[in-house]
Write a structure and sequence with these properties.
By secondary structure, this protein is of the alpha/beta class. Helices cover about 35% and strands about 20% of the residues. It has twelve helices and 18 strands.
Length: about 425
């Protein structure tokens, strides 16, 4: 029995795909082992969203080969798709996007051809012209209470800074009946919460006439699932029909990640984001109108090409105005092949760092304020793990808003929904 170690880099979609590959390997007689010395095969699902992601992907590939020079190193995913055969010389098998479902067949062919192998085995397709949704499936995940469910792949937006449409291809959606069948299996296996995720989740269904709201309603009907979370959304999907539609579903968690990137209209235009700051603000206010104290989180890029001090201040002031629960700050990363890479007035690294620090400090304060708003309230918590702190047993889980809390409790109550009164901020964890 061959031993396989897997390592994931990147987003929730990548995490889902890595676990799906692990399940395929287990079902076909491979033994799954930790990502350490001694494996016969190392599978690294790579990421390319930033230069740092590229670097981490290369580091993990080299680490795998160093741990066992005789092992087969399999590089899969976005870094591989973007770089092609230039990816790295330590790779034995290179599997691009939409080929992960064929991992077992590719490995079988590799073993048969190994004695004649003269170069890396390359399995890439023209990702920009495929219309096929990659059929990966999961019945269980490493987390025992919450499961990511991939429902969509690809992106048609072509934001000027983003390499992902070139690595993931155009929008491809998973059939609703297939999603529901997987969610039903997860529910039967004990999962209480699912997270619907995709590369551009808001585009779900545009390739076959469906839409995300209908999918959410179908998942909501699955017995055993008590909570539904949504992955990152584009602000334009937040219409009154959509907001009121999901607000009418009791299982929907009031936790929404709305991608912003900048609060300055001039910067948004250069980014090819298709909304204004004011339109974005209206979407946030609509969610706050139909949900009670929802957790709104976002992404912001600082130091985008041409961002002046005045534009940065406009963006900072807007982020302060929206009052997010969490703000994920990214320093602009120049990605060759994107429109922004050749834009004039690239912002110096030092300036990007200074702006990032300003945004991060504001974000920490906003997060603290939001969490403090729960003190004195009784909240529903899905308990996920039991830990001992200073000799005492605590149960740890997340509220519907994805605030992490702890409760002193000798009884093990993992994977149960319980009501907890937040007495003080010490019960809230980060």
């Amino acid at each position: 029995m061959k031993k396989v170690a897997l390592h994931n880099l990147g987003c929730k979609v990548n995490a889902y795909e890595t676990e799906a590959m692990q399940e395929m390997l287990e079902q076909n007689g491979y033994e799954i082992v930790p990502f350490a010395e001694g494996a016969d095969v190392y599978v690294i699902n790579t990421c390319t969203v930033t230069n740092m992601a590229d670097r981490k992907s290369r580091q993990m590939l080299h680490r795998a080969k160093k741990m066992n020079p005789n092992a087969v190193v399999v590089a899969a995913g976005c870094y591989v798709q973007a770089q092609g055969e230039k990816a790295d010389d330590c790779i034995d098998i290179l599997i691009g996007n939409n080929r992960k479902k064929d991992l077992i067949t590719i490995l079988d062919e590799y073993w048969r051809e190994k004695n004649e192998k003269l170069s890396c085995k390359v399995e890439l397709i023209d990702i920009g012209h495929t219309h096929e949704y990659e059929g990966l499936h999961l019945s269980r995940q490493a987390e025992h209470t919450r499961a990511n469910v991939k429902v969509q792949d690809g992106c048609n937006q072509f934001c000027s800074y983003c390499i992902i449409p070139y690595a993931r291809g155009r929008v491809r959606s998973r059939r609703m009946e297939d999603v529901v069948a997987e969610v039903r299996t997860l529910a039967q296996n004990g999962y209480k919460e699912v997270v619907l995720t995709g590369i551009h989740l808001s585009s779900y269904g545009i390739d076959f006439g469906g839409n995300l709201l209908d999918l959410i309603r179908a998942v909501h009907d699955v017995d055993g699932i008590l909570r539904i979370r949504l992955g990152s959304l584009e602000p334009r999907i937040i219409t009154r029909e959509f907001a009121e539609g999901i607000a009418a579903l009791p299982k929907i968690c009031p936790h929404f990640h709305l991608s912003l990137q900048s609060g300055c209209d001039a910067t948004l235009k250069r980014m090819n984001r298709r909304y204004s700051a004011e339109e974005y603000y209206e979407k946030c206010e609509l969610l706050r109108e139909v949900f009670d104290n929802p957790a709104l989180t976002t992404d912001v890029i600082v130091g985008f090409p041409g961002e002046t001090d005045e534009e940065f201040e406009e963006s900072r002031a807007f982020v302060e105005k929206v009052n997010f629960y969490e703000t994920h700050i990214f320093k602009y990363s120049r990605r060759q092949g994107t429109k922004a890479a050749s834009m004039p007035d690239q912002v110096p690294k030092k300036v990007k760092t200074e702006r990032s620090n300003i945004m991060l400090e504001m974000g920490r304060e906003k997060q603290k304020n939001y969490e403090e708003s729960f003190v004195g309230r009784t909240v529903e918590v899905l308990m996920e793990e039991t830990v001992e702190i200073d000799g005492e047993r605590y149960q740890i889980g997340h509220t519907r808003e994805y605030v992490k809390v702890r409760q002193k409790n000798e009884e093990i109550i993992t994977n149960q929904l319980i009501n907890i009164k937040i007495e003080n901020t010490e019960q809230i964890l980060r």
